[in-house]
Every structure is written in structure tokens, then in C-alpha cells.
Amino acid sequence: MEQLPPSQPRSLADLFFTFTVLALQGFGGVMAVVERELVEKKRWMSKEEFIEEWAVAQVMPGPNVVNLSLMIGGRYFGLPGAIAASAGLLLCPLVLVLLLGYGYARYGSHPTVINVLRGMGAVAAGLIIATGLKLASALKRNALGIPVATVLGLACFIGIALLRWPLMYVMFGLGAIGCFVAYRRLKP
Question: Which of 12, 25, 115, 128 has its CA 20 to 30 A from that of 176?
């Protein structure tokens, strides 16, 4: 498939509305939606850039996608871009969450509502897995490579899901190992 040239947002309004649309599609996790929109549709970044910036967004304090919106907005329009992108990401969902919170307070114990929420959790997990598999091809060009990235990913899963270690310890421990391996491989 022919690679199209990179693009960029046309204006602050383009940033705002793009991130508003992303936010309204991303209940339960937006990584899959963000990757598809920013990499495949808008072409504001390559798969490799997305993976690198998503990794940075994950180690920064705060929600990953908010951090990513700040980085992308800042890249193209500086501080006004960072504000526009993050406002687009947060404004409509804030209103919706307040309305949903009110609804849940009233109807949250209803069996249908409970089952709907369980189903949404399964869908969100499936989206995350599908996006991870789709982005795995970009690891071929990553300094870590597929074998090391796979081992680190499995170690993360084992540490957090099975051993129930605190996320902070797993993230910093495996992150340090990943940084060390990448540094050694990139060092001339």
C-alpha cells in the first residue's frame, strides 16, 4: 500500500473538533480510536511517532490521551494548540459524565444497567487488544525489536494482572529495563 504524505491540523478549530470527536467515540478507552483517527485518517503522525508519543504520554502524570492531546496540540500550534486539543478532548465528555453520573445515581442498581456496563467493559478490552495487535508491526523498526518488546509486555501483564504488583513499580522497573536495552542498541 502506498504511503501518503504526512498532514497536519489546519487550524486550532480543526484540533478542537478532531479531539472532541475522538472523545465522544472513546468510552472505556480511546487508544484504538485515537490511533485510527490520527495515524490512518488524518495522517498527523506515523505509527512509529504514535507509539513513541503514546509511550511518553503513559509515563507522564495524568490521563494518557490528555497528555497526548497536549503534545500534539503543542507540536503544531504551541500553547494555544495544546489548550485547544485538550479542551476539545475534555469539554463534551465532562458534560456527558455529569449527566451519566446523575443517571447512574438514579438507575445504577437496575439489572439491565449492570449488564450493559459489564458488556461495555468487554468491548473496551477487545478494542485495546485489537489496537495492540495492529500496532505490533511498527515494532519491527523499534530499537527494542519484537522479542524484547514481547518479553517486556508479558512481564508487565504477569506483574500487574497475576502478581498484583503496584503499577508504579512495574512501570518504572520494566521502563528502566526497556530504556537501558534501547540505549545499548542505539549507542554507536
Answer: 128
What SS3 state is found at 10? coil
Q: Which of 32, 80, 71 minimizes the C-alpha distance to 53?
A: 71
**27 located within any domain:** yes
Q: Could you tell me the residue range of the domain that residue 77 belongs to? A: 12-108
Q: Is residue 40 part of a domain?
A: yes
**Distance (Å, whole) CA 138 – CA 117:** 33
In a domain, 144, yes or no: no
Between CA 156 and CA 165 the distance in angstroms is 10
Beta-carbon contacts of residue 86 (< 8 Å; ≥ 6 apart): 19, 66, 69, 70, 73
pLDDT (tens digit per residue) in 53-94:
988 888 888 888 899 999 999 999 999 999 999 999 999 989
| Number of structural domains the chain divides into | 1
Angstrom distance (rounded) from CA 113 to CA 111: 5
Cα angle value 42/95/65 (rounded, 5°): 40
Q: How much is the pTM?
A: 0.58
